[in-house]
Amino acid sequence: MSYTSEKLDAMADRGELKPAPGTAVYRDPGAPALKDKELMGIFAGRPREEERRPVNVELRVKVTPTMKDPLKRIAREENLHNSSALVHSVLADFIRNRAKKACKAF
Length: 106
Description:
Layout: H1 5-13, H2 36-43, H3 65-77, H4 83-104
Helix pairs in contact: 3-4
């Protein structure tokens, strides 16, 4: 069975959409709509289907054991999909800020 966006919207409004088994939901049902930055954090690194561009390069980051749980907690608080999305968001902000500083130096 295929669904239109209108049917899915109506199902969501009626509370008929349930998470897939084994997945986690971090937002309360009555939570406000996600903001653009939050959505970008969730989908960061995932190319849109119509964009025929290479998939992003994977970097592995090692953290200390004491950083792991706070990373997960902060990611949930920021409504990000996972710790990786949080690291991506923080790194993107850092790079933007560094670029701004470099431009001001000239």
